[in-house]
Design brief:
Distance between the termini: 48 Å
Low-confidence stretches: none
Number of strands: 0
Number of domains: 1
Shape: elongated
CATH class: Mainly Alpha
Radius of gyration: 20 Å
Structural class: mainly alpha
CATH superfamily: Phosphate transport system protein phou homolog 2, domain 2
Oligomer: single chain
Number of helices: 8
Strand content: under 5%
CATH architecture: Up-down Bundle
CATH topology: Methane Monooxygenase Hydroxylase, Chain G, domain 1
């Protein structure tokens, strides 16, 4: 009976984290939409909703600590509890990045849009894909899928660099008046910050994949080279 209760509580912990993941994904998707569509109402909705995601993280910690204190789990059950605590922390940080994007979008919506860059579009799509795949591998406890998320991180880094280069070029280009040049610089800086937030979501999604691999295999792949995982070294 005691073990049945333990596994019931462990299942509730997993469900809570998956619910948090779904809400975090929605917040991130809405933040991107607010930026692209210049939708200040949607941006404010993301900002206001962050408190709820924070509260879920607190709930996850309470559930996990209770299981650790009362049940003294071993092996995979122990990894499951610790891994879900770490994953909830990564999700909360992703939600924070969604808030950061939304706050910058509120500022940008007050000014004419900058020229669109293909690198920013690619960065948004890559970070969205990484988060979706990280959540999928968490749901399915798929270590191989978790490793696939890691391999996308270099793409996100490269897209971020390209966005930075294009916006620096835009800032140094001649503007007809000082005030317009100043406004263009401000908008460019805010957009650079958004690109950094997107890249950071990719990093945090990679972390989620690494935690999933630890839960499933009991192996810490955080500092393991990707070539080693593929058997190339």
């Amino acid at each position: 009976m005691e073990r049945l209760h333990f596994h019931h509580e462990l299942e509730n912990l997993k469900i809570t984290v998956l619910n948090m993941a779904a809400q975090t994904r929605d917040a991130f998707e809405n933040a991107i939409s607010a930026y692209v569509r210049r939708d200040s109402d949607l941006a404010q909705q993301v900002i206001d909703g962050d408190r709820h995601i924070n509260q879920i993280e607190v709930d996850v910690d309470k559930r996990a600590l209770r299981l650790l204190a009362l049940e003294q789990p071993m092996a995979r059950d122990l990894r499951m509890i610790i891994g879900n605590m770490k994953i909830s922390n990564e999700l909360e940080r992703i939600a924070d990045q969604a808030v950061n994007i939304s706050e910058r979008s509120l500022f940008l919506s007050q000014y004419p849009p900058l020229e669109e860059t293909a690198a920013m579009d690619r960065l948004m799509e890559t970070s969205r894909t990484m988060l979706k795949q990280a959540i999928a591998c968490l749901r399915d406890l798929d270590a191989q899928a978790a490793r696939a998320v890691r391999k996308m991180d270099d793409q996100a880094d490269e897209h971020t660099l390209q966005v930075l280069k294009s916006l620096i070029e835009l800032m140094v280009a001649d503007a007809p008046a000082i005030d317009k040049r100043r406004d263009k610089t401000r908008r460019s800086i805010q957009t650079i910050i958004i690109s950094r937030c997107l890249e950071r979501v990719g990093d945090l999604s990679t972390n989620i994949g690494e935690h999933v691999a630890f839960i499933v295999e009991g192996i810490n792949i955080k500092h393991q080279k990707i070539q080693e995982e593929d058997g190339e070294i």
